Amino acid sequence: MRDTGQGISPELLPHIFDRFAQDERARRHGGLGLGLAIVRSIVDLHEGTVRAESDGEGRGATFAVELPLPGEEVAASRPTGVYRRLESGPSRLIDLGGRRILVVDDEADARDLLTAILSRAGAQVLVAASADEALEALRRWRPDVLVSDIGMPGDDGYVLIRKVRALRSEEGGQIRALALTAYARSEDRSQALAAGFHTHVAKPVDPLELTALIAGLAPERRD
């Protein structure tokens, strides 16, 4: 994909896919510096590559994504060594063995990405776009683990987890919970744990790390 927009400075270009990498122009428009990092996470999930090129500020940018073909065509077109590296690298996931995971995020792209990762790991996934939807799903579906964003409109993740902890155990009040958020400072982690989450991980999350954390929260599938 090529655009004719503001371009990328030579100093920023090597870091463009890093979490929170952004220039002053992006900050003025309220960006968090997570968009391209999320793109890389999605591409990594599909065992592909992504790169960016730009001749500098005001000269546009080019983004190229390469994804492997499915099945035997891939094996025929790529060296065997590449697949050994991928099979032993961060694209591997921990088997979640049918665990029920409730994902809460107001961003549709984030919900889709998390659903893809967790489903690939063998989990059953239900998504909610708000705290109210999550509370209804929690009572109705009784998931094993809650994975929730923090920065949501209306009731945020902190309010959600406090409402969850106020529920009776049979309503899901003791559910294991993971905060998945762009708020990545140590004080953000402390606030998440104090509110009632069991653990905290920053976006964009590595799929292996995410599935390992969930497996640790729910070592066995609940009947």
- Total domains, how many? 2
Identify the CATH architecture of the largest domain. 3-Layer(aba) Sandwich
CATH classification, class level of the largest domain: Alpha Beta
Helicity, as a percent range? 25-40%
What is the overall silhouette?
Answer: elongated
**Overall pLDDT score:** 80
Share of residues in strands: 15-25%
Strand order of the largest sheet: 5-4-6-7-8
Low-confidence stretches: 27-32, 71-91
Structural class: alpha/beta
C-alpha termini separation: 47 Å
Per DSSP, the total helix count is 9
Largest sheet: 5 strands, parallel
CATH topology of the largest domain: Rossmann fold
The whole-angstrom Rg is 19 Å
The CATH superfamily of the largest domain is: Response regulator
What is the H/E order? EHHEEHHEHEHEHEHEH
Report on the architecture of this protein.
- The chain is α/β, with parallel strands linked by helices and 223 residues long.
- The chain folds into two domains: 2-66, Heat Shock Protein 90 (2-Layer Sandwich); 100-217, Response regulator (Rossmann fold, 3-Layer(aba) Sandwich).
- Helices cover 38% and strands 17% of the residues.
- The strands form two sheets. It has a five-stranded parallel beta sheet, sandwiched between helices. Strands 1-3-2 form a three-stranded antiparallel beta sheet, covered by helices on one side.
- The longest helix has 13 residues, at 108-120.
